[in-house]
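Regression test case RT-17, inverse folding.

Input:
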């Protein structure tokens, strides 16, 4: 689904990502850990093609196509979607209208999902205007559901979300990424950024990576990596980082 080779990215004069390699197969979901400022959001915004991020080296392939220089809307058309860490407010645009524009589903399906998310009352409201952090996350999940992309990136879908809604969001992400299907029937792939392991209790993820100072310091089994971070912080990852650097 997604293949990244030797990716180096700059924001302005600052080199944020240094030689990133990543391979996400069809049906696979990967998790990205890492301290604040490591470059996690930069990586997924670069994959999506946000022009603020300058690819100075390397390539990104999506569904076998080199998309490194492809504009964002074409990547979206190819089946890429994102749930933002801090989605912007869009005054004057009702959530309902936005959903209608981006949707690849029937309206009654979206209404049903809004009900599951306990979000019906928000459909008539302007997108993210006055939404709390947790409400904005549910709004993002609903938009992703409506768009129904094949590859979905979630930037901290659990931050600012209360315990009950973390379980709900975790379960929904799992479903959006085909994890309720048997492995041979899975067609979706995902990349999830999270600081807290709690949401992983409700999701089936295949592989984890730790991004440290713009380098993938280590990769492995999600539970092993998470246990390590809980026990040692990012100390062990720093050792790996020093070796790779
Ligand atoms: P993370 O998501 O891992 O917390 P980010 O990808 O948001 O980290 O940021 C990586 C680094 O890039 C940080 O040092 C951050 O300050 C810097 N950065 C992000 N956006 C900009 C910007 N628009 N201008 C300058 N530096 C930026
Ligand atoms: Mg952060
Ligand atoms: Mg971030």
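Golden output:
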């Amino acid at each position: 689904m997604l293949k990244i080779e030797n990716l180096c990215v700059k924001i302005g004069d600052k080199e944020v990502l240094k030689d990133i390699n990543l391979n996400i197969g069809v049906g696979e979901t990967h998790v990205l850990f890492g301290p604040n400022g490591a470059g996690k959001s930069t990586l997924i915004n670069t994959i999506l093609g946000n022009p603020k991020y300058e690819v100075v080296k390397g390539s990104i392939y999506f569904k076998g196509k080199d998309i490194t220089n492809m504009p964002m809307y074409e990547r979206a058309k190819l089946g890429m979607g994102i749930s933002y860490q801090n989605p912007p407010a869009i005054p004057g645009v009702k959530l309902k209208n936005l959903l209608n524009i981006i949707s690849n589903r029937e309206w009654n399906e979206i209404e049903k999902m809004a009900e599951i998310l306990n979000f019906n009352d928000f459909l008539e409201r302007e997108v993210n205007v006055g939404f709390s952090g947790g409400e904005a996350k549910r709004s993002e999940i609903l938009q992703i559901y409506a768009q129904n992309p094949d590859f979905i990136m979630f930037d901290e879908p659990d931050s600012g979300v209360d315990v009950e809604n973390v379980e709900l969001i975790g379960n929904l992400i799992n479903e959006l990424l085909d994890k309720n299907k048997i492995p041979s029937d899975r067609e979706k792939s995902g990349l999830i950024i999270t600081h807290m392991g709690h949401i992983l209790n409700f999701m089936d993820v295949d592989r984890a990576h730790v991004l440290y100072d713009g380098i993938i310091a280590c990769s492995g089994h999600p539970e092993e990596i998470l246990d390590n971070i809980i026990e040692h912080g990012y100390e062990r990852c720093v050792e790996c980082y020093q070796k790779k650097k």
